[in-house]
Amino acid sequence: MVPTMLPAVVSGVKGLGPLNVAAAVVQSLMERAIARGKRDNTLGTGPFDIGPKGRFLVWFAEPPPKIRIPAPRNIRPPARIDDPLKLLPEFLKAQDEWERLIREAAGLHQARLKIASPLSPFRARLSAAVPWMLAHQRRHLWQAENVKRQILSAAPRASAQAV
């Protein structure tokens, strides 16, 4: 690999880190909302509206980025990743967990159940959590695709310079 491309490759691999961290946080919030809904017998049949805040969160997360803000502290990935090879398996495991949570939420009134605390700027309906996080994933994967394009466009120039 050409040394000038190494930062782009590392950046692309690390791009899964924020997705894994956000998934762990939001999936935990969803798990609690689902448990609360089952405990309180908050039942309903969909489809459920994601609400104005949910629509905003999805719009905000969709690529390309409209506004760039730093991730909140509790969902920032670590600055150093000890084993980048674990990122993809963790990402795939998170995808399985989204599917499990969707099944667990079936039969609950997902528009009445909220994720996050009342003071959180990310408080939203349970019905908004998956569309929001899928938009967030598309955003980071879009960014990774741009990194890939940079690598591929730099490769011919780098090999020409090496000759």
Q: What's a concise summary of this model?
A:
The protein is mostly helical. Helix content is 61%, strand content 2%.
User: Quick one: overall form?
Assistant: elongated
- Would you tell me the structural class of the helices and strands? mainly alpha
Mean pLDDT level: 84
| Biggest beta-sheet profile | 2 strands, antiparallel
Counted beta strands: 2
Could you list the spans in which at least 5 consecutive residues all have pLDDT below 50?
Answer: 1-11
What proportion of the residues is helical, as a percent range?
55-70%
Which oligomerization state do the chains in this entry correspond to?
Answer: single chain
**Proportion in β-strands:** under 5%
Number of helices: 5
Elements, N to C (H/E): HHHHEEH
Largest beta sheet: what is the strand line-up? 1-2
The total tally of domains equals 1
Distance between the termini: 15 Å
Q: What would you report as the Rg, rounded to the nearest angstrom?
A: 19 Å
Kindly describe this structure:
The structure is a single chain. This protein is mainly alpha-helical. It has one domain (3-69, 106-157). 61% of the residues lie in helices and 2% in strands. A hairpin with an 8-residue loop joins strand 1 (114-115) and strand 2 (124-125). Helix 1 (6-14) runs antiparallel to helix 5. It is elongated and about 65 Å long.
